[in-house]
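Comment thread on ticket #2218

A.B. wrote:
> Attaching the input chain for the structure job we discussed in standup.
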Amino acid sequence: MNVPFPGFAHATARVHLHSLGVTERTVRWFLESGIQLPSGGVARYYRADTQNMRPVSSEITGYAAAFLTYLHDLTGNARCQEAAVKAARFLTRTAWNPVLSAFSFEVEPPGASLAYFFDSGIIVRGLLALWRATGDEEFRDTALGCAQAMARDFRAPSGYHPILSLVDKRPIPADSRWSRNPGCYQLKAAMAWLEVAEATGEENFISLYEAELAGALRSQAGFLDAETDQERVMDRLHAYCYFLEGLLPRSNRPDCAAALSAGIVRVKRLLDKIGPSFERCDVVAQLLRVRLYASALHVAPLDTEAASAEAAALGLFQYKHEDPRVDGAFCFGRRGSEWAPYANPVSTAFSVQALEMWRLYQAGEFKASVADLI
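C.D. wrote:
> Ran it. Output below, let me know if you need it in another format.
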């Protein structure tokens, strides 16, 4: 996708990067684009048209810690592990507030005044990925503290509040955005409790996940129907895929297997319907990953034609450009033929993992480790 965004420097010395593979170019982007700041924190995205990095996000840094660990395992590049540790230490030593037992949405104001249940779960999983890779107990201990705070501070009469204000930890009023409301998508964050239980032996966390699973199964049917605007339905598809991912640890249960199978069909149908006018890269990647997991876990046979088409579609989202600030990243999405000018770390992580999983499946080597899911 050679997009001539305004103000891009055409440094022809970097054209050779385009001959590298998808993953190699992504490694270079994460390590050399500036998306990870010297502090270790990772920016929410790079905006190519205005040439500026968005603020550092605790959630995105959590995703990056897990993804950089994954890239190290995949490539053996020691710099990926160094960057992953740097991201994790930013989380434990800068973003984590030990007095409040909370990770703020963004470290700098105004985001510092908010804490998200979902973000907390993503950060816990990122820290535990580093703990498994390094054995550094700082990462596990902070993950445990955050998992305890998720259960204690976000508790609502039914389920968990999505957002709290800091420092008083009062719930933020809901509005029309899915991220400002509780919902089935929170099940992916609840996966963190299962991983903490495994890491610490504290089995009470398992019951927390099970309770959230029961609530998600009850509420999921109406989640996509709660919105009629097609662009917002696409946004909800991204969140609904989080629900499908959150089912994977219990995919051997008939009710969870049925929800996974039906969910894959539903996401595909809506993606085909809305995609020509608005398509999100992360939704395509999430759908492909869930397909592959469902097949490997013997939940649903793989539709290889659909999976192949999704893999091909993902390839179109990777930037090919002389500017190192975008080359190798994946674009957030497109409206019609117009590509959004956002080089997005999460879209990149999901897409590279989906494409690598597809490659392994084709080689007969894919194994469904739920803990590896970014």
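A.B. wrote:
> Thanks. Noting for the ticket: Residues 95 and 138 are 14 Å apart (CA to CA).
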